[in-house]
Amino acid sequence: MPTSFLRIQGIRKVKMNNTETNQDVILIGAGIMSATLGTLLKELAPDWNIKVFEKLSKTGEESSNEWNNAGTGHAALCELNYTVEKPDGSVDISKAIKINEQFQVSMQFWSYLVKQKLIGNPQDFIMPIPHMSFVQGDDNVRFLWNRFKALSNNPLFKGMEFSEDPEKLKKWIPLMIQERDSDEPIAATKIDSGTDVNFGALTRKLFGHLENQNVQVNYQHSVEGIKRTSDGMWEVKVINLVSGHITHHKAKFVFIGGGGGSLHLLQKTGIPESKNIGGFPVSGLFMVCKNPDVIAQHHGKVYGKAKVGAPPMSVPHLDTRYIDNQKSLLFGPFAGFSPKFLKTGSMFDLVTSVKPDNLLTMLAAGAKNIPLTKYLIQQVMLTKEQRLEELREFIPNAKSEDWDLVVAGQRVQVIKDTEDGKGTLQFGTEIVTSADGTIAGLLGASPGASTAVQVMLEIIEKCFPDHVGEWNAKIKEMIPSYGLSLMENPKLLREVHTSTAETLGLTEKKIPVFS
């Protein structure tokens, strides 16, 4: 057999026409989404053969990595962009309810895994932390009060408090209130049932479990092509980035969970559902505090309001984080721009994602989002002192020497044609599945990882409809609220909250003290 040599990503490639054993499932990307889907499927169909391909040398190194996201357990407890003010001043909380319910699904699944001893030490990946919203100015204080009234009447948000009393706020957020000279009205809400989630640690735990279940995880293997075969299966072309060998793998079902890289792979499939979809990359940066005395003065995740023209992922927040069993303090994110779709991607990612079928969609999005473009340019041009000025809106006496800048992950905002017109920018999490359910991909950003279990259950329902009936009892065992609304079942909600808090170590008495 003749051997041909290729140059791909700076490595000499040796072409090998090897086709390995057929698989039931192939997962592309070793992040939180593939980890979640793989773990669910191994519980539902333990005999299925699952193979994973990851371009990097470890699991959870891109979007799932703890330094590449905010670590907020997104339950809409503090994120103001999930509650929209109507023209009459009332607040629409429907999105907040949806996201909260979805996060409860994740909590139940993680709790099940811990109870079954499939993963251990939940404090390695989840910690209790108050979630707060903080606003300044008369209009924003009025909005926060209306939001509080709407949410606090809902059982999902039980325990939320509101205050504009400076003395009470000093107890909640002393670092933010001390030395604040302005007479501008301020207010905050606080709820103690929030969480900090280390999605990198969780991803590593889930893949450790999967490898113990004979799931083959292939690191430093890049998927370069996906095509339909005559027998209705999918053939995946994979390059070993170490040896340069090219192999082909066939599967009945393929999940593309490669973060920003998913768009290119979906385009390679040729499925109609992948057409007329584009992506716009937005990078993020965080300021990280290195002064232990400052870190010790703050305990909570405090979210503010996004600036005009800013994408929702750029909502400013001051976060207590638990990383490597140490308490940290981060502020951000600051938006940036890179044409890469992944932190480890190519400078040509954006250009090569433009195809004849999505060209008009992309152009329309550019015309519609001039304020966003202007905002990103302004963010890229910020100096450290200008970033500090934004931080001082939260911490008035913040000092430059106490803070370093860390580059976070890349997010690709989905662009597609909707009822609102051509080239509409999407800020949520998007699932793309083929009509026959044999291939699925995940695009988009926040709330992302926090709602991974709900999103993967939706993929299972769409892609394995013939099995869902037989799997229903097992799903209910793992997620007691499956198929039900917790908001409409207060008794079940109380049981779920109590059980997950106890199992995951989220009760107040179990909060460790870090110096």
What does this structure look like?
With 515 residues, the protein is of the alpha+beta class. Among the domains are: 72-196 and 481-515, no CATH class; 276-430, no CATH class. The chain has 15 helices and 23 strands. The protein has helices at residues 32-44, 94-115, 138-152, 166-172, 174-177, 199-212, 262-269, 292-296, 349-352, 359-368, 370-380, 384-391, 452-463, 465-478, 490-503; strands spanning 5-8, 11-19, 23-28, 50-54, 84-85, 91-92, 126-128, 131-136, 161-163, 186-191, 195-197, 216-219, 221-228, 234-240, 245-256, 277-289, 301-303, 317-323, 326-336, 403-418, 421-425, 429-433, 439-444. Strands 1, 2, 3, 4, 12, 13, 14, 15, 22 and 23 form a ten-stranded mixed sheet that branches. Strands 9-10-8-17-18-19-16-20-21 form a nine-stranded mixed sheet, with helices on both faces. Strand 20 (403-418) and strand 21 form a beta hairpin. It is globular and about 70 Å long. Residues 1-14 and 509-515 have low confidence and may be disordered.
Beta percentage is: 25-35%
Which sheet architecture does the biggest sheet show? 10 strands, mixed
- Can you count the helices? 15
Report the helical percentage. 25-40%
Number of strand elements: 23
Write out key terms for the chains shown.
single chain, globular, disordered N terminus, disordered C terminus, 515 residues, 15 helices, 31% helix, alpha+beta
Write the layout of secondary structure elements.
Blueprint: E1 5-8, E2 11-19, E3 23-28, H1 32-44, E4 50-54, E5 84-85, E6 91-92, H2 94-115, E7 126-128, E8 131-136, H3 138-152, E9 161-163, H4 166-172, H5 174-177, E10 186-191, E11 195-197, H6 199-212, E12 216-219, E13 221-228, E14 234-240, E15 245-256, H7 262-269, E16 277-289, H8 292-296, E17 301-303, E18 317-323, E19 326-336, H9 349-352, H10 359-368, H11 370-380, H12 384-391, E20 403-418, E21 421-425, E22 429-433, E23 439-444, H13 452-463, H14 465-478, H15 490-503
Parallel strand pairs: 2-15, 3-4, 3-15, 4-12, 8-17, 15-23
Antiparallel strand pairs: 1-2, 5-6, 7-11, 8-10, 9-10, 13-14, 14-15, 16-19, 16-20, 17-18, 18-19, 20-21, 22-23
